[in-house]
Hints:
The chain has 4 helices and 20 strands. It is mainly beta.
Amino acid sequence: MRLVxxxxxxxxxxxxxxxxxxxxRILRGTFFEDPLPTGETVALIDVHLLAxxxxxxxxxxGRNFVAHAEEWGxxxxxxxxxxxxPSTAVIGxxxxxxxxxxxxxxxxxxxxGVVIGRxxxxxxxxxxxxxxxxxxxxxxVTLRDLQKKDDQWARAKGFDxxxxxxxxxxxxxxxxxxxxxTRLNGEIRQQASTADMVFGVATLxxxxxxxMTLLPGDVLLAGTPEGVGKxxxxxVVEVEVEGVGVLRNEVRG
Length: 253
Ligand code: MG
């Protein structure tokens, strides 16, 4: 099932779609409190899709693919290398990625986004999937020059618009073997299976919740494959997670 958040006219609503269907069943309430169908439907083509969730925070994983660590000449961490993006980093699947004058090098990083479904604290890896609502596509947009300059990455990875999410949440994929693919202006630049991640989704949830509570709607960005690269004004970047969908954002200078 696909869970969508959208604007229709002046109303913001949530809905559910079957895979392959273009009809949204409008729901009452949030995804996290057993939402009920209102009985209303609306066509996907008639709505403006929004970021599927508004997380309190995003927990992101650095260098979780060996080939990506190697492309920077860096070692793979022995434990997950985590950093945060704030709620204000999130933009939706129709929003532009805005270039910033403080940086000369802004990069895409296509990633699997894991959406937490219920409060998670001290979760064991074998129980982790009970805490997951579903999966979305994420772009860990990075000011690469500032990431190299700064010891901490609040600027480089936490700026407004640094976390495009969408186009929706898919509840039924295997996150341990999902292809993550990034296209820049239609050309494939990144492609790998999450099976190649150093730390899998369940391990990441156990590791994180040992010290930080994850709330419903929080998002884990699981790390990017090799092939990251620069964005320039007018580019179109698409992050696809097979079985989920395609997150497409234009870049504006
Ligand atoms: Mg990343």
